[in-house]
Here is the input.
Amino acid sequence: MHRRIMAPGALAAASLMLAIPASAASLSPGAPGIGDPYYPAYGNGGYDVSHYDLRLKYQPATDELQGTATLLARTTQELSRFNLDFLLDVSEVRVNGAKASFATSGEHELEITPAKPLAKGAPVTVVVRYRGVPSSKEAYGFNAWLRTADGGVAAGEPEGAWWWFPSNDHPRDKATFDVSVQVPDGTQFISNGTLQSTSSRAGWTRYNWRSNKPQATYLATFAAGKFDVTTGTSESGIPVINAYSKDLGDTAGAARASVERTGEIADWLTEYFGPYPYNALGGYVPNTPTVGYALETQTRPFYSPRQFASGSNVSVVVHELAHQWYGDDVSVKDWKDIWINEGFARYAQWLWSEHEGEGTAQEIADYVYASHAAEDPFWTVKPGDPGPENQFDIAVYDRGALALQALRNEIGDDAFLAVLKGWPQKFAYGNASVADFQRYAEEVSGKPLAALFDTWLFQPSKPAAPAARGASIARSAEEPAQPKSWKEIAATNGVHDHGHDGEGKGGH
Here is the structure.
């Protein structure tokens, strides 16, 4: 805050200024947004979180959540005040042990003013006590909390954390997590990472989960309900925990037949993407009938039962597990970089089709190119920067994967595989942009790729036949046949049907 000092003369003003610490002049509030052009109010400025410790209690019957969040952070500027993204009702905030004042502002901001200003580069501990009913809270006209018959679920993109813990809610600020939730005996609680312990007392059971690698806030998940839980180990030695709502009905068998292949698929993906980046695997299928999407919640993807309404669908499991490398391990710098997530997860489905002998990636690429006429709006969406309204448009997925096949044809299989494997290691547990990927692909392949990326990712038009043939796409004049895998791949199009219209706008 800058105070204007009124004094009768310059000397008096100077003497007053001398009484203020030199650093005070640079004290200012942290920005209410992190600077993402798609979502200006998401995330916050002035600090970086390294760890979230969430100790909560949840009552499924009333959907009431209460507890304490402890955030370990470091300031990135001298702070008079800072914000957290949060919607529930706060009763107390402490900063470095001392009570802090707080207020709400905007749609989802918790403004915190510490008792003493915070120096730049200083470690900060923030404790927030809160309670509320997540299903009763809205921001921007929507609610991302998924109420179920026996509990509640948080799994949403690009936001979901606001409904259950205070955070710096943007992928650019990743942190480790300890999530400890108490639920009534007979109810289970599922989250990310490894289950450290459970304990029961006086009719309540506490589940303690830990994510020991940096995780974006939207990838943290909360799932309380009555589940059938299966445990195992992948062939490569990663522990697998899967969970299925007890009331899935007709979809239960198809869901299990798909999600139980998680370990096998993750091991297969290492052939293309390199070592699995985490110490836990799994997936969960709660009974969330109002939404149809899936989401790559870190180590333990969320799947709507609708994904399995027509039978087993291994392709959607491939998609969400591919995100563990592309989206979770390496996350977007800004939400405009969503191709880094979705183009690659979709391409993994094409690779699985190749693996299963149901159509090569080349055959699927030819089919996608031929299936959309030049005047189709599909081509007006630019996967490299689609705009917030088209962030989860089908073009980001299919045109995005098409761009990868064009890249593969341009640089050759060996260089392409080196890029796919090297990228998650170069930017491990961090963030990167589409521009970063282009530079990396040029570095690995030794080829200039600006024109190819521009044509396939940034032009709002269908690449002309010469450009397509130059990238070895649709080389034949004949109409390509529909690949055998296409129906299963297309059945996962609902994977991005996650919106803020009551049906959910994306998820991914």
